[in-house]
Amino acid sequence: MRRIFIFVSLLSLIVTFFLAWYISKNWYVIFAATLVLSLMGYYDMVQTKHTIRRIYPVFGRMRYMMEELRPKIYQYFIESDIDGRPLNRIDRSTVYQRAKEDNDTMPFGTQLDVYAPGYEWICHSIAPKGFNTLDHDPRVLFGNKDCKQPYNGSILNISAMSYGSLSSNAVEAMNAGAKIGNFAHNTGEGGLSEFHLKHGGDLIWQIGTGYFGCRDENGNFSPELFAEKAKIPAVKMIEIKISQGAKPGHGGILPAAKNTPEIAQIRHIAPGTTVESPPYHTAFSSPRELIGFIRQLRNLSGGKPIGFKLCIGHKTEFIAVCKAMISQDTYPDFITVDGGEGGTGAAPQEFSNYVGAPLLDGLAFVDDILRGLNIRHHIKIIASGKITTGFHIARAAALGADACNCARAMMLAVGCIQALLCNTNRCPTGVATQDPKYTKGLVVDDKKHRVANFHKNTVRSFVELMGAAGLESMSDITRSHVYRRISLTSMHTFEEIFPSVKEGTLAEGNIPEKHKIDFEYADETHWGFVTVGSWSKKDPKEKKVEKIETKE
């Protein structure tokens, strides 16, 4: 191929040059184009980075063009309405339609295969409730016995997304929409910015492992900076991020291209550098110290609701945290349960694909443990992980959620097209980029109404589902209201799939067999986990259990 290219390029240069010299000067344009292509080909043959280009000069470049075009061609011309990932076209279209207040009804019936394993539905009632008789704006009160400034929040709020990962215009539009719709906006771990505060929307300030916005010069937690910002009136709750579903056990990443001087100032970091948050917290090193940190933040904030966010990993560790709560009689006001299906702008594929419990499994586990230990009444649960429709809210509520957060749906509401370029700083819609040539296309005054519309219409769809099921409030939904098909001839309720634990049974010592090892080795004085080997078929008395402690 290289020899053919050399022969053809030289011949083309000679022919076009003589045609331009003897026939018409217009041929010089063709000659110039041929010369450029030839030089590109010669460079391809001598460079050592790309094998395809060395073997197939010029033509090998088409491979990279097609790779760039592939996601767009697939999304617009090949995939069906139910095939798209991570969000299919039906869900994306629903978000767009509700954000724009367009017709969101579906013609000619469902496209889902209702007989396929995994299909889920909610049971309706012969005696449904009229929509007009129900509360169109259901709320949940965050704040337990130690909280001095409880927050009456919406059942659907904006999940954690930092300024830095999102553009200033996107952050403004979301916060302004939250203000219009009277719901909360989670700042993400990137800290409080002027764009979060500009429009006065309610904020949940997230504190991550980098302590951005409340850190000292060494990157450690600064009580003074935290107290100063936590008392801002717009900050309604504070959330400690222990882990997120998209990359649990992995710190956040801010690419250097997105780390502008403005963002660096907000986060108290050096501009123009790639910033990787530590995978662990330095402010606490055990379950007991985590509870002490919660107590410290509550005091520093003037008694505002304090909670933490995590994706469930080792069950022993969460049970250890619960033991620490009970021993110190101190409880978070809320726990945000994130699922492994959660989204992020940048994460190693192994973490996105293979680490962390999915939302439904983690949510059911957290609700069961809190109820079983008789401490559920102290703590509200927020569910996060691919929440885009009213059914997703109902499904999460059935497993114990008091409220839900959504991130990608809110991104779609402000214009995201799922171009899958979040980690490149080249987001074509100006949502996940800091490049002004893209961000200027996102008009805050227009998109803020779309955010508010999406929230209003999605909550409305949830309330309609409640009415159809014959229920009056979110707290009435149980695991028996939602079904999942297991096979063509078998369908189970969530109660059968995730058997619930009765209030107080774990506190009384009635621990199910599947949790006995976790409870036995849950120690509030350190983080650790248990490996049980392959003894499941042996007599319980002969089980050999190895306790592995993490270094602190």
TrEMBL record:
Keywords: Membrane, Transmembrane, Transmembrane helix
Gene Ontology annotations of biological process type: glutamate biosynthetic process
Transmembrane region(s): 5-23, 29-46
Keyword Methyltransferase set for record: no
InterPro entries noted in UniProt: Aldolase_TIM, GltB, Glu_synthdom, YerD
SUPFAM superfamilies reported in the protein's UniProt record: FMN-linked oxidoreductases
Any one GO molecular function term: glutamate synthase activity
Glutamate synthase domain mapped to chain residues: 156-471
KW Kinase (keyword) present: no
Family as reported in the entry's similarity comment: Belongs to the glutamate synthase family.
UniProt-recorded name of the protein: Glutamate synthase
